[in-house]
Amino acid sequence: MSDIINQFLAPALMLFITGFVGAMLKRNLISLFMCVELMLCGAMLALLSFASAYDDMRGGVFTFFILTIAAAEVAVGLAILTRLFSVAKSVSGNNLGNLRD
Amino acid sequence: MDVELYSILLLPLCSAAIIALFLRSSKWGGATVSVTSAGIALAMAVAAMLSDAKIEAFESRHVLFSLGDFSMNFGVLFDPAAMNMLFVVCFVGFLIHVFSVGYMDKDPCKGRFFAGMSFFMFSMTGLVLSSNLFMMFVFWELVGFSSYALIAHYADTEAARAASKKAFIVNRVGDVGFLLGIIFCQAKFGTTSFSELSQILSQNPSQASTLMGLLLLCGFLGKSAQFPLQVWLPDAMAGPTPVSALIHAATMVAAGVFMLVRLSAVGMLAPDVLDTVAILCALMAFFAGLWALGQNDIKKILAYSTLAHLGLMGVGVSLGYDLAMYHLTMHAFFKATLFLVAGSIIHACCHEQDIYKMGGLFRRMPLTSFVGLLASLSIIAIPYFSGYYSKEAILAASFGKAHITGAVFDQIVFWLVMGAALLTPIYMGRLFFNVFLGKPNSEKAANAKESGIFMILPLLVLGIYSLAGGWSFAYDIFWLDGKMDGLLPSAATQFVGNMLEVHMPALESVQGAGLLAKLALSLTVLGLLAAYFLYGRNRGYDTLQRNVPILYDALKQHGWFDSLYDWYVAKVQQRFAVLLATFADMFLIELLFVRGIGAFCAVIGYGIKGLHVCSANSQVRWFAAGALLLFLLFVAF
Q: The complex's ipTM?
């Protein structure tokens, strides 16, 4: 059992950290978006590994929901990005201050 | 009994509502409805009093609403004191209603006037029948409102508008104290019902608190226009004369005395409160008599005379509340008569009110003048006229108290009252000689004609009561199986009569009582002679004003109270109001609280805005930091 956890948890953690660091550093909003997806993937991998290790369906089911929601989120998010591009002529995440003032 | 009393109470209200809603512009409709309702109310009141020779006190109570432990009761208390007062109110009220039909015949706003009169009758009946202080306060304010509305009847004149406001505001000053006293009473005894208070206080008379008594006294000072709140009553004469007769002479101003009688009867007024009443009212009785000599307006002279007699009633309360009720009843008869006589004259002289422009009216208006003579003899306390009995009783009681206690205080009160008894014939003589005797001093007076039947009939009836009203109390003239006592229902006379039977022998046995009666009578004669020599020759001007103008002006200023209050309002109250407006309102509330809170939020907002950065990455960092913080918090706790 612990083999499975060791085999899969390390990649899951790596995926998450990659996503997290990327989200902190990447300026391009599309890259940032992909980094967020990476973090989600890491979390889902961890869920699946625990699910198979404990032979429990719930982790798998939960993953399905996350995937579904992530897909919907991507659809909405990309739509926002295209609108943003048509307004600001850029997809950089550096000057999103319109709502501040 | 409940139904009958409530019909007496609500009938005038219905009349007022009908007139105000449908008959405002009707020529005779308002008068008809109003007079009919007053007549039916009188008939029902008399029928209730005649239903039995000796009626037990009747009390009913309905809960109006309750809040927790406190419940507001609405109930009627029909005891001997209320019967006495109710008879006065309904009887004098009805006659004045009839008189008004004649007096107001050419007035364009008759509907409003009669609606006001009916509303006043409703409020006054409610006040008389109130079984507790809260209900009394409600009707107390309603009579105040009716007075305000009726003084302002001639609202197109500046004087009437100012007078109505003055009456209302001065009364409010007294009513604040009255309301505080009622709340104090409720807090201390847990009830304001007269019968329950009577039970509590008869077991333990020492519970009557001086402070509470003084607070309740404020209501009396405002309503009955005594020191230092007397300034509104002379100005209130700007209203129509029937209003002055009904509200500002016979009934409403006497409601203050009635309230004191009620409180005194249940034992709420501690001895030192009664002493305060005695000295304030004795001063008023004396000085109002003096000030009456500085007035030329016939109604104002009568107004000062009302002040003086309300003062006498106040002294009566301090000596024994039955005496006050006695004088209240007699005063209602003769003072209403005098005001109606004045009204009849004013109506005949085309609204001329200056006594030095009248004169010679005895020949032109014989009936009015004859009734005026009866009422004048009654007010100056000529023996066998009704005013004599009550005034004599108060003088005797005051003399007796001063004699028994021997205190300087009681001596002062006694001599002030004696002074008032001397002044009454002087100012009444001044009025009578100049108005009725001699020759007319103006064209209006020369053309005066006797008034119509609507004015003469009530005058004659009231004239008879000014002459003979006192006999019911002083002697036992029972008829109709003892249900009537002289001219009054015996139910209405028993309150005073029962107490007098106890008090009078004691008063008459005081050493020198016989001498006192002779002294009082000789003072009256002396006053009349003085009035004759000073004012009797109908010169068309005031002797005092011509010869000693300084003294006359001093009297005319009636104690400079108006100037004092004007100074107070302009210099003290106005400045305080400005201070409140600038400091409390504009600085504290507007600047500090309202704008201050806004500015505070704006400053905080600017600070927080600085934390917001325009980069998605730093938002992620903030998010991560926040998540970390939450995680640490969860781990820590």
A: 0.76
